[in-house]
Each structure stands twice: as structure tokens, then as C-alpha cells.
Design brief:
Elements: H1 12-15, E1 17-21, H2 29-37, E2 38-42, E3 47-54, E4 57-69, E5 76-81, E6 94-98, E7 101-108, E8 112-118
Antiparallel strand pairs: 1-2, 1-8, 2-3, 3-4, 4-5, 6-7, 7-8
Amino acid sequence: MRPFTEKPLLTKADYYGSYVIDRTKFPGRQADWQYNTFRFTITSDDKLAFYVTRQDSVVKTYTGNVSTAKPYSSERLVVRMEQPTHHILATNPTVYRIPSGFYLVFHSAKFGNVFFTKGEWESLGE
């Protein structure tokens, strides 16, 4: 992702990459558990793979496709998952732009808001 000095104008290419739970929003045991249990990737061929994991082992994979909509100046992520899907992916995420990039918030019927940021999963050393 390119560096930003202001809130970025997002394009579809900005969404490509790996995502992990953002543990800085609500740090603690629940965030650590979510971090070790959920992550996903979006590839340049517009495929989304959502992983349910146990630490570094994938337990289940949910797949789908992504596109973008541009209701304003930035493109918004649109997720179309194969059914049935995981409850975290039941709706499109809200995109929050920040000076250093953006983060995604999915609404889960079980967990409420679930925050993801771009990044590679790393063991928490527990």
C-alpha cells in the first residue's frame, strides 16, 4: 500500500493482501482469541479466503469474491461469499480510513464489531 499523509482515497488494489484481527481496538483475551482464530486474504484475482484457525493451523476455509463500489471518492469493499458462510462475513465491512491507511469492521451477530487490519499473522508467543 502506498504511504499517505492524509486520509487515503482507496482503490480495489488497496484491498489486496492479508488481514488479521486488530488487537489494538479492544486489547485483551478476547482480542487475542479472535486474532488466533480468524484471518483472511484477498487476492488480485478478487478472491477472498476466510480462515478459521487454531493458532497457525487452518481448521476451516470459507471462500468468496470481492468487488468494489464507489459511492463517493473512495472505493468500498463488497464481499460475496459462497453460502453457507461464517457469521463475520454476513454483511459488507465498514471501511475506516486513517492517515496510515485503513481498517475494516465487520458486524457479527455473535461478536458485534470485529476489527481487521492488513498484516501477516504472527504467533503471540503464548
